[in-house]
TrEMBL record:
Domain of life per record: Eukaryota
UniProt organism field: Gossypium tomentosum (Hawaiian cotton)
Protein's name in the database: CTLH domain-containing protein
Pfam families: CTLH
UniProt cross-references to PROSITE patterns, sorted A to Z: CTLH
Residue ranges occupied by any CTLH domain in the UniProt entry: 1-29
InterPro entries attached to this UniProt entry: CRA_dom (IPR013144), CTLH/CRA (IPR024964), CTLH_C (IPR006595), Ubq-SigPath_Reg (IPR050618)
SMART domains tied to this protein: CRA
Amino acid sequence: MILDTNPQLFFQLQQQRLIELIRNGKVEAALEFAQEELAPRAEENQSFLEELERTISLVAFEDTSNCPVGELLDISQRLKTASEVNAAVLTSQSNEKDPKLPSLLKMLIWAQNKLDKKAAYPCINDLSNARLEDPTF
């Protein structure tokens, strides 16, 4: 359902699949996949076509470390795709796409900083352990 309403995300997932085929040295399978699955979508969307061309250019290089688009093979590309999928899932479930915990921790720190000037209170100084510490008098 998410992929039906988000062609950009679907393309990104398919692009990642193509990248993984290339990474694993399955060049023939990658070319076939690109032709059958990605090329028809790329004909409909110029940005998809540009991304497909960038990705398929990986097969032209034996040494991808010298490839101008070698970053597509980096773990950061996988993480980017995973992050996009995660955001889409959260949005589809009517949640915000960003996790709430970092915001809550920032608010806790802000509130404690304000209270430090006005009162002694049990506070959390070590966020990783989340232990309340007694105020020092």
